[in-house]
């Protein structure tokens, strides 16, 4: 009850007119900035950090919380409507959200995403209130072998269910892993695949890779086919969820937080792995597996709820341990230090009013996000009525601006369009794009955790599976890989369609 009473006091702080206004302003700014391709919540918080210099700490962090959730939803909006993820956590949303938009169901996809954000964030924030100390304590005990096993599971699970064949899925993953190797070796400082360029020594930012493969690759593909097929605006569709949509979405909305919050709370967590796993889970459990890859609403609802719950989970590590697990958390940690506040085990005692006001503002921000964006869903969907040549020209412009804003280097623009050409070639030969993005995001982290585990075991291969958690995860990996063989040995019976292509066939685009 102590936590509950402190949360009530936090609502007293968050619901003052000034703080309520800051929360609403943060949600609006975050949504509008998040809609720009390549400019996600982390960059939004970083750009707006100087604006808060004149604010008192509680008001500043309440505004940051609104920007965080608003930016996440803005990134999902561009993923759904334009196939252009605003951040890495919104990559999975594009797989089903964009085909829905192309069928004239963009408003329903946006509504499913908005409600998913609300439900996932609500459950995640409640878990933050109740379980923060416990989850943080458990997360500390997770070692390098466990992290590496989790990442291997993400690699295998997603590449096994995407694409017209597993060979193409793994080929796409290898492309992503190769891109992820570019830069300096974190262990030795040796340059890898930089071709002597100092600008590539820091590696390629994942936002540039995601925007290049999705936005630029898609734009070039559409441009290559516009002459053959007339350019017609895509219909907006009706702006509400039907009974069938709600029936198919409510379970993914509830399953998402179960996957997202624990991963977000891990010291090396984030929203990438859980959103990938949520998509795989929903495809396996859905009765409409044949629809996946062509606009299944479960593939939007589940990952969006997962990402929002994971965002709440990241605050566990940041507030209780002082460990930023995402770029946004790192920027917020810098903001804490700017005010002379050090997150950690004693933060809840020393800055009780600020912390509980921040947590209460998460509930307020989620509610404002839902109230603002449900009515705006049809408005955002009208972006699709813009004629294709102008629409994709705008996408290329904003994608270029977003890539250049990452570090202000012209080389980033060159890399963006080189990766865009790779994305065009992948579409031409039927390789799914998502495994490549997974390889870029998780490849460097997986390598680091693998080498750390081997160092701890003096090079013994057994150091990769010497914990109970890692053994269980590798057993799941083996089951996923061997399941097609096992299924052939089982007695034949009518089965639901399983591995459907997650990428649109080339002839259907344009």
UniProtKB/TrEMBL annotation:
<feature type="transmembrane region" description="Helical">
    <location>
        <begin position="413"/>
        <end position="442"/>
    </location>
</feature>
<feature type="transmembrane region" description="Helical">
    <location>
        <begin position="389"/>
        <end position="407"/>
    </location>
</feature>
<feature type="transmembrane region" description="Helical">
    <location>
        <begin position="259"/>
        <end position="280"/>
    </location>
</feature>
<keyword id="KW-1133">Transmembrane helix</keyword>
<feature type="transmembrane region" description="Helical">
    <location>
        <begin position="200"/>
        <end position="223"/>
    </location>
</feature>
<dbReference type="InterPro" id="IPR002823">
    <property type="entry name" value="DUF112_TM"/>
</dbReference>
<feature type="domain" description="DUF112">
    <location>
        <begin position="20"/>
        <end position="437"/>
    </location>
</feature>
<protein>
    <submittedName>
        <fullName>Putative tricarboxylic transport membrane protein</fullName>
    </submittedName>
</protein>
<keyword id="KW-0472">Membrane</keyword>
<feature type="transmembrane region" description="Helical">
    <location>
        <begin position="61"/>
        <end position="82"/>
    </location>
</feature>
<dbReference type="Pfam" id="PF01970">
    <property type="entry name" value="TctA"/>
</dbReference>
<feature type="transmembrane region" description="Helical">
    <location>
        <begin position="109"/>
        <end position="132"/>
    </location>
</feature>
<feature type="transmembrane region" description="Helical">
    <location>
        <begin position="169"/>
        <end position="188"/>
    </location>
</feature>
<feature type="transmembrane region" description="Helical">
    <location>
        <begin position="20"/>
        <end position="49"/>
    </location>
</feature>
<feature type="transmembrane region" description="Helical">
    <location>
        <begin position="315"/>
        <end position="336"/>
    </location>
</feature>
<feature type="transmembrane region" description="Helical">
    <location>
        <begin position="144"/>
        <end position="163"/>
    </location>
</feature>
<keyword id="KW-0812">Transmembrane</keyword>
<feature type="transmembrane region" description="Helical">
    <location>
        <begin position="463"/>
        <end position="486"/>
    </location>
</feature>
<feature type="transmembrane region" description="Helical">
    <location>
        <begin position="356"/>
        <end position="377"/>
    </location>
</feature>
